[in-house]
Amino acid sequence: MDKKDLKKLVKADFSEFLKELGFSKKSEGVYIKVNDNIIQNITFEFGSIGFTCWVVMQPLYVKDYTIFLHLSFGSSLGRFKSFKRNWWSYEEPVKGISEIKELLIENGLPWFDEYGTSKGIIDFISSGKVEEYGFWFNERYQKQYLGFSLLYSGRIDEGIKALNCMICEIGENAADFVKAYNKDMIELLGRIKENPEETPSIIDGIIAENRLALKI
After folding, report:
1. pTM to 2 decimal places
2. Among 95, 90, 14, which Cα is nearest to 50's?
3. In the chain, what are the domain boundaries?
4. Measuring CA to CA, which residue among 213, 167, 216 is closest to residue 39?
5. pLDDT tens-place values along the chain, 216 residues long
């Protein structure tokens, strides 16, 4: 089966199913739901040798270098918790779609339910679940998500500490846009230290900026 026909098959099999779970179509093969200002993202990827499906979370309260829907915090269902396969074959589309739906119900949706809040992300990262689940989510980004989740949850001192650790990992050889982000973060944390009562409004500003850029 070619990609065009497979995309139609995925749409027919998943659109209504995901709609009933509160997900809406963002673009072709991409379905999202927002809970506790965290995007829950189910993305189908159609590669040159096969197709797969990712389950990803992306907090809207995180300030990053650039704003786009990405697949950093999560995994393809074929590698979720344990390795099963990288791709499903275009030659067996019905079997692949069935297996993906089964894995989504078994692993992906429960992950969203258990960890899809700011507290859930804090617990997931703090308890070492990133490694246990086999996610390719590096230490710096873990500190970023942890720090902003703590700020969002009102745990300001802990959030500042985590984000300071992230800042310290950005070296002199970093790209200019990374250095610019580092400078912005130092200024942001300075504002929060001086006026911690302004933290909710600062976080609200980040959320508004991300929502606007992502058209959510």
Report:
1. 0.94
2. 90
3. 3-117, 121-214
4. 216
5. 889 999 999 999 999 999 999 999 999 999 999 999 999 999 999 999 999 999 999 999 999 988 999 999 999 999 998 888 999 999 999 999 999 999 999 999 999 999 999 999 999 999 999 988 989 888 889 999 999 999 999 999 999 999 999 998 877 787 888 889 999 999 999 999 999 999 999 999 999 999 999 999
